[in-house]
Amino acid sequence: MTAKVAFLGLGVMGFPMSGHLAHKTDSVVTVYNRTAAKASTWQERYKGQVVNTPADAAAQADFVFICVGNDHDLEQVLTGPDGVLQAVRPGTIIIDHTTVSADISRRMAAIFKQQNVAFLDAPVSGGQAGAEKGALSVMVGGDSVAFESAAPLMRKAYGKEVRLIGPSGAGQTAKMINQICIAATVQGLAEALAFGQKAGVNMDEVLQVISKGAAQSWQMENRASTMLQDKFDFGFALDWMIKDLGIALDEAQRHGAQLPGTETILSYYQELTAQGDGRLDTSALIKRLR
Ligand code: NAP
Fold first, then answer.
1. What gap in Å lies between CA 16 and CA 8, rounded to an integer?
2. Is 175 a catalytic residue?
3. Which domains does the chain have, with CATH numbers?
4. How many angstroms does the Cα of residue 67 sit away from the middle of ligand 1?
5. Using a 6 Å cutoff on CB, does residue 76 contact ligand 1?
6. Structure confidence by residue, pLDDT tens digits, 63-110
7. How many whole angstroms from 35 Cα to the centroid of ligand 1?
8. What's the pLDDT at 288?
């Protein structure tokens, strides 16, 4: 049976992800974006309907996908005046791809459960390029029956790895683990590259060798050359990373976990954002070392 799919939030990630749903699955797609112009651009490129509120998008949907900014934005599209809660039908499954706190995911799951609506937290990793190529890792928390219904659509559209981690909030916890790993890797790479340049060695040659050894990483593969050229005007905005590391530190405190490196790197990102660099890619950490 053809699924009716709603997608809320056509940003850097949501635009191509919803596009893949329209292109690669036989779903009927309805999109909503707060800024209407983006939805019009989407409609020029993909097949689907555009509506003016999250409630209108959710009204007929079997699946409601979301990719907005933060906890506050998620709350607005779900429980705000024209939010999903106003119109969603029992049996609908909500899949939230926003990176938010585990806390709000559990809270939303509890609210929607009362309407017999399942809420899956399903943050993604793979960045803008992963969204555009349709090759994202999706880490999911929530009900396993709802997961089994929603997973085939995600796999077909943009999920190269789609995995249920545990109950509500577990997907977001997995994303926190992901971001903790990334922060330390980027800082390590920034230090290594800035050191190498100051030491005057041929960094292209160095990278050819070490990227085949134990120092190899996604960041090295995808960011080292742009970092060496001081190019940061693309990618994953460091303001998003500040949000994500803040979420991870709050959660760590709740569990009595120590994140000393993450705390320090967060302060470096805050320094960069204070000087107006908040929209630069996270690899801009190297700027502090110049
Ligand atoms: P983005 O380009 O800034 O897009 C955010 C989207 O959310 C826009 O469509 C925006 O609408 C909408 N939005 C924000 N606040 C809203 C509100 N209060 N009500 C309704 N809509 C609202 O962000 P993005 O890069 O796609 O990231 C989206 C999420 O994915 C974030 O949680 C981010 O941390 C996560 N993520 C991003 C990446 C990445 O590489 N970019 C990678 C992994 C995860 P407008 O168009 O009206 O502003």
1. 12
2. yes
3. 4-167 (3.40.50.720), 174-289 (1.10.1040.10)
4. 6
5. yes
6. 999 999 999 999 999 999 999 999 999 999 999 999 999 999 999 999
7. 12
8. 97
Query: What per-residue confidence (pLDDT) applies to 226?
Result: 98
Ligand 1 and 83: CB distance under 6 A? no
Atom 21 in ligand 1: residue holding the nearest Cα: 34
Between helix 144-157 and helix 14-24 the angle, nearest 10°, is: 90
Strand pairing report for 4-8 and 28-32: parallel
Percent of the chain with pLDDT over 90: 99
What mean pLDDT value characterizes the chain? Answer: 97
pLDDT digits (tens, 9 = 90+) for 215-265: 999 999 999 999 999 999 998 999 999 999 999 999 999 999 999 999 999
* Model-wide pTM > 0.85: yes
The structure tokens 């779903």 sit at: 27
Choosing from 47, 175, 243, 287, which is the catalytic residue?
175
DSSP annotation of 125 reads E
Mutating to test ligand 1, I would choose from 41, 65, 67 the residue with most ligand atoms within 8 A of its C-beta, which is: 67
Q: Check if 101 has its Cβ closer than 6 Å to any atom of ligand 1.
A: no
Contacts of 6 (CB under 8 A, 6+ apart): 29, 30, 31, 32, 57, 58, 61, 63, 64, 65
Question: Ligand 1, residues 8, 20, 73, 243: which to mutate, most atoms within 8 A of Cβ?
Answer: 73
* Contact status, residue 131 vs residue 13, Cβ threshold 8 Å: yes
Pairing of strands 63-66, 93-96: parallel
pLDDT band at 154 (very low <50, low <70, confident <90, very high): very high
Cα of 41 vs centre of ligand 1, distance in Å, is 16
